[in-house]
């Protein structure tokens, strides 16, 4: 299958909308190249199909496009092609191989040299290196590699203890992540993750999990299986609910939930017996669990930036139990 780059700012704006980076790559399974006229025709067919669809020319155009169905369109930035020209890239395999190669460019993570050769050749070198020496890898830094997925090859490293995949463009995490049985610290912060896989619950050795600055709308039950977890960072998401299974995290010491949209906190949070610090600042809370009142180990509780409705004054009492941290007072906004 071949890929061809087409340009022309007006055409790109018409098809893909404003702000699209060139080149636009169009591929067909029959190794044919689409002309600008054909691409424009496809755009017109898409627009006409949203209307009445009664125009005879639209029907004929749609018939022509059917002969080219299954074509795929991908937008690639020249900065993310790992030194490979656009014409060498398969629109599907390229994305995967690019994600595999990115953390190992320029000798990063102790990989062998990857200079020269096509993207597929570089990916083959990485695969061979991981197969032959994967058991010796204990830390992997994938931070800021512009990755859109975590290749499953990186989930088969039996002695990996630390994985940093922060500051990428990850939309999801593969189920195979559960194969990292020795993982102690996992940083997935600053991505676009909305759903967590069930495989995450297999990381029974995990002590630190950072998921801040993503798109999560809940604290799912699968996190309750991470019984070794001591630090859970979830600030700046879209979290509205917390699973009751969080009470199973009996070793959890630090829980950061600030800058979300929580309206309530389940009483199970107050039952986390090992909890030392709990940050609930800048949510939409109107109350906090009474169990926090007599918590045996909690040293700091962040409640600022909420709007509590407190008729008994008990929230005041809870807040007064905790001394300011780093010289900063508790910023509790109570609406009585």
Write up this protein.
By secondary structure, this protein is α/β, with parallel strands linked by helices. It contains six helices and 13 strands. 19% of the residues lie in helices and 12% in strands. It folds into three domains: 73 residues, no CATH class; 127 residues, Leucine-rich repeat, LRR (right-handed beta-alpha superhelix) (Alpha-Beta Horseshoe); 121 residues, Ribonuclease Inhibitor (Leucine-rich repeat, LRR (right-handed beta-alpha superhelix)). The longest helix is centred in the middle third of the chain and has 15 residues. The N terminus and C terminus are likely disordered.
Write the SSE topology:
Layout: E1 3-6, H1 9-16, E2 24-27, H2 36-49, H3 56-66, E3 72-75, H4 93-101, H5 119-133, E4 139-141, E5 162-164, E6 185-187, E7 208-210, E8 218-219, E9 231-233, E10 241-242, E11 254-256, E12 277-279, E13 300-302, H6 314-320
Parallel strand pairs: 4-5, 5-6, 6-7, 7-9, 8-10, 9-11, 11-12, 12-13
Antiparallel strand pairs: 1-2, 2-3
Helix pairs in contact: 2-3, 4-5
């Amino acid at each position: 299958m071949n890929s061809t780059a087409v340009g022309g700012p007006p055409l790109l704006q018409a098809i893909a909308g404003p702000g699209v980076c060139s080149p636009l790559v169009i591929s067909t399974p029959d190794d044919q190249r689409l002309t600008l006229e054909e691409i424009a025709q496809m755009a017109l067919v898409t627009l006409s199909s949203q209307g009445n669809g009664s125009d005879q020319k639209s029907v004929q155009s749609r018939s022509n496009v059917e002969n080219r169905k299954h074509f795929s369109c991908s937008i690639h930035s020249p900065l993310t092609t790992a030194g490979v020209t656009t014409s060498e890239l398969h629109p599907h395999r390229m994305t995967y191989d690019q994600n595999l190669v990115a953390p190992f460019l320029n000798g990063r993570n102790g990989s062998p040299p990857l200079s020269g050769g096509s993207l597929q050749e570089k990916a083959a070198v990485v695969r061979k290196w991981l197969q032959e020496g994967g058991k010796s890898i204990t830390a992997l830094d994938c931070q800021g590699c512009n990755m859109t997925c975590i290749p499953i090859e990186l989930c088969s490293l039996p002695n990996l203890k630390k994985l940093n995949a922060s500051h990428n463009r990850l939309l999801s995490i593969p189920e195979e992540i559960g194969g990292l049985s020795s993982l102690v610290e996992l940083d997935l912060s600053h991505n676009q993750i909305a759903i967590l896989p069930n495989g995450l619950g297999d990381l029974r050795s995990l002590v630190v999990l950072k998921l801040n600055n993503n798109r999560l709308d809940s604290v799912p039950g699968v996190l309750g299986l991470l019984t070794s977890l001591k630090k859970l960072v979830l600030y700046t998401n879209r979290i509205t609910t917390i699973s009751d299974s969080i009470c199973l995290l009996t070793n959890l010491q630090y829980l950061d939930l600030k800058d979300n949209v929580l309206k309530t906190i389940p009483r199970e949070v107050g039952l986390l017996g090992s909890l030392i610090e709990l940050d609930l600042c800048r949510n939409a809370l109107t109350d906090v669990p009474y169990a926090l009142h007599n918590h045996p180990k909690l040293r700091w509780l962040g409640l600022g930036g909420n709007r509590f409705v407190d008729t008994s004054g008990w929230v005041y009492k809870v807040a007064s139990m905790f001394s300011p941290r780093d010289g900063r007072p508790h910023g509790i906004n109570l609406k009585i």
